[in-house]
């Protein structure tokens, strides 16, 4: 019964989060498909790489933008022995509450069956939100998570955390925001899970290493700073600018060489 209730809360929250993002983004809602559309970029130096980088785009971005903006090229330039999967996980999957189901059934499970031993999620904006939700709800499934400018929920929830003295001191939600709208359950649950990164040392915990990148003038930077304070400094990266591809590409090129990923032979 608890599992069923928890699942319902997660699904309801995905819809609320998607609605919030609709207010801050522009463009038309795209239709979802089953399975998720994906494309695979094989490693240039390893025939049978056992590491997979799964890239999740922003709300209205397309997977091809990872190619155009140099994300895939950066993997090659850094001689990382990993394949790259570009996933068309647009906002529609969050709006219809199927993103976690589709990621598991169409991306992670098939990758495991194909022999990938280490799977990383690399998410931008709402893709970062989805990456964190997947890590939260599928303990032990991921080798690592990279979030760049992630959407992390309503500002009022971040304000509660800040007013409590930060993520380490925050004990949970203070109640409903003004106006009677219920607090998004899954955003609250996500922050409670993120609280586990305060002073976290990776031992027997199934929590994957988490890397955060954001621009200092990003519209979500208030929440980013709250999360950054809970992470080791070497896993937090910042740059000047706002919420767009030039900043995200700069961050990715700085973050990639620091990730514990296998290198090309020789």
UniProtKB/TrEMBL annotation:
The record lists the organism as: Variovorax paradoxus
Entry keyword set = Signal
Give start-end of the signal peptide: 1-25
This protein is called Alpha/beta hydrolase
Q: Which PROSITE patterns match?
A: PROKAR_LIPOPROTEIN
**What InterPro entries does the database record attribute to this sequence?**
AB_hydrolase_fold
């Amino acid at each position: 019964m608890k599992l069923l209730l928890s699942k319902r809360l997660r699904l309801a929250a995905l819809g609320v989060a998607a609605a919030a993002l609709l207010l801050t983004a522009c463009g038309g809602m795209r239709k979802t498909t089953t399975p998720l559309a994906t494309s695979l970029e094989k490693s240039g130096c390893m025939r049978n790489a056992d590491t997979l980088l799964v890239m999740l785009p922003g709300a209205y971005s397309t997977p091809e933008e990872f190619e155009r903006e140099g994300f895939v090229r950066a993997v090659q330039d850094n001689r990382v022995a990993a394949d790259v999967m570009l996933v068309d996980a647009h906002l529609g999957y969050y709006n219809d509450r199927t993103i976690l189901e589709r990621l598991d059934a169409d991306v992670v499970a098939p990758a495991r069956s194909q022999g990938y031993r280490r799977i990383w999620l690399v998410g931008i904006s709402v893709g970062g939100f989805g990456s964190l939700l997947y890590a939260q709800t599928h303990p032990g499934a991921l080798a690592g998570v990279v979030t760049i400018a992630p959407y992390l929920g309503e500002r009022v929830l971040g304000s509660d955390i800040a007013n409590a003295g930060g993520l380490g001191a925050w004990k949970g939600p203070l109640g409903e925001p003004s106006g009677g709208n219920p607090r998004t359950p899954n955003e609250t649950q996500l922050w409670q899970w993120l609280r586990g990164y305060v002073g976290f040392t990776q031992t027997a915990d199934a929590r994957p290493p988490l890397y955060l990148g954001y621009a200092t003038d990003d519209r979500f930077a208030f929440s980013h700073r709250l999360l950054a304070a809970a992470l080791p400094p070497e896993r937090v990266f910042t740059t000047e600018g706002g919420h767009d591809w030039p900043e995200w590409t700069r961050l990715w090129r700085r973050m990639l060489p620091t990730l514990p990923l296998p290198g090309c032979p020789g």
